[in-house]
Amino acid sequence: MSKTGREILEASRVIAVVGASRDPNKAGGSVPAGLQQRGFRIIPINPYADTLFGERVYRSLAEVPELVDIVDVFRPAAEAPDIARQAVAIAAKVLWLQLDIRSDEARRIAEAAGLDYVEDECTGVTSSIYRIRKKAAA
Fold first, then answer.
1. CA 126-79-106 angle, 5° bins
2. Dihedral (Cα; 113, 134, 9, 40), 10-degree rounding
3. Mind listing the domains of the chain with CATH numbers?
4. Strands 51-52 and 55-56
5. What is the per-residue pLDDT across 14-66, written as a single tens digit (0 to 9) for each?
6. What is the pTM of this model?
7. Nearest residue to 14 via CA among 61, 65, 69
8. For residues 83 and 61, is the Cβ–Cβ distance under 8 A?
C-alpha cells in the first residue's frame, strides 16, 4: 500500500518541482515558496528560468545533481507519464501530481518502479493541514 501524503511529507526533505513558476500568483510559484518556508529543500525545474526561490533552476530532472525525495508535478496530466519515467530514472522516492492532475499511466510507471504515488493532492495544503515543518539541517 502506498503511503499517505502526510507520511510522505513527514519523511521527505528534498522536493524537485517540475513546472516551478516565475509567477508567484500561480500554484507552481506559491506552493514551492510555501514549502521552502516550511523547511523543505526546493529544486526548481523550469526550462525558462535561471533562479527561482533563491535556488538554481534545472532544465530537467536529469540535470539535478543530488538525490530527490519527491518529484512534485505542476504540469498538465498529458506530461505526467514522461515525468514519471524521468522520476524513475533519477531514483526519486515519490511521484506527486498536484491538485486536479491525474494519470493512470504515470501511476503505473511510478508504482512499477517502486515509487510512492500521490495524485490530485496539493503538497502545500497537506503540509499546512498537518503543520509539517522541517528542522534546519545539521
1. 65
2. -60
3. 5-129 (3.40.50.720)
4. antiparallel
5. 999 999 999 999 999 999 999 999 999 999 999 999 999 999 999 999 999 99
6. 0.97
7. 69
8. yes
